User: Fold this.
Amino acid sequence: MLQIRHLIEPTDFSVKELEDLFELADLIIDDPKKYLHQCDGKIMVTLFYEPSTRTRFSFEAAMMRLGGSVLGFSDPNSSSTAKGENIPDTIRIVSGYADIAVMRHPVEGAPKAASLFSRIPVINAGDGGHQHPTQTLTDLYTIRSKFGRLHDLKVGICGDLKYGRTTHSLVKAMARYPGNEFVFISPEELRMPAYICDDLDRSGAAKYTECRTIEEGIGDVDILYMTRIQRERFSDLDEYDRIKDSCILNMDKMKLAKEDMIVLHPLPRVNEIHYEVDNDKRACYFEQAENGMYVRMSLIMLLLDETGDFYNGRVLSVNDSVMSFLELDRCRNPKCITQIEPSLRQRFITYGDGIKVCDYCGAVLQKG
Ligand code: CP
Assistant:
C-alpha cells in the first residue's frame, strides 16, 4: 500500500518507479477501456493560477477517462485567492473536497508549499521558471517510445533555458540515466541557470556543452528539445524584443540534423519552429502532447493507489536522497514562494558536499 506521495520535483520518483509508470501508460494505450472505472468516485481538483491548455486539459481528460470527476479553477480571480486567501489555507480546504490536487503557480516553490499542508497528493503542474515534472514524464515517455531507451542519448535543449522550467526538469531527469549528454543552445542572456549546471558539474552525472546557435548544436544530437522564449517572465521587455528571434528552427536547419533525430517541444510554440517543420517525420511534438494524457492517467492511478493488480509482484522502490533541514537562513531568491507567503517555514536541503539549496525553489544558498 502506498503512503501519501506528491510529485513536486522530477526526481521525486525513482528511476524504477518511472519505468513502472511508463509501463502502465503503455498498458493504458493498448487497452484504454480496461481503465474506464479505475478511479470511479474519486475527485481531482485543478488549481491553475497561470494559463494552460495541455497540462490542465490533459489532467482533466485523464481523470475523466479513469471514471473520476474534476473541479477547480483556471483563473485564480474566480477563487478566494482574489480576497487574499493564501496557499496553505487553500490546500487545507480543498483537501477536504477532493482526493488529489494539481497545481500550477507563477511563483517558484508554490506546489511544494502546498504539499506541506495537504492531506491529499499534490502534483506540481509548473511553478514559475522552476520545474514542470509532469511535462518531463511526457518527454521521457515520448523519448522512450521513440528510441526504446532513456540512456546513451545526446539531447540538444534550445531556446529559453533560463526561464524554461521544462528544460530544468528534463535535465534533472535525464541526468539520472547513464551515458546521456546535453547540448545547451541559447542566447547568452538565456543560458541554463547555474544551479542546474553546478548540479551536473558536482555529480558528474552527465556531460554538457553550451553554444549560441541551432546550426552549431543540431548536427549530432538524437533529440532537439525546442522551447519558447517566455515573454511573461521578463522584467525588461526591450530585452525580450532583442532576443526573441534568436533560436528559430526551419527546414534549412533540419537538413543539418541526423535522419533519426526527433524534435520535441513542450508547446505552446510562438515562432520558434516554422510550420513547415511540422510535416517532417522527425517532428514529434504533437504526439508528445497526446502522450501527456496517458502518462498522467498512469500518474493519477499511482498517486491514488488505484493501479489495481499492476503492482502485484513488483517491488516499489523509494527515492533514497538524504535530506536535512535547517531553518536559520532565508532563501534569497526574490521569486521564491517564501518571499510571498510569510507563514512558510524556511526549509533547505544540505547535500554531503556542503551545498545548501532552498527546498521550495532550488535556489543555492551556500556553495559546497
Ligand atoms: N506544456 C505545457 O505546459 O503546456 P500548457 O502551458 O498549455 O499547459
Q: What stands out?
A: Confidence is low (pLDDT under 50) at residues 315-324. The pocket of phosphoric acid mono(formamide)ester is lined by residues 52-55, 126, 135, 266-268 (CB under 6 Å).
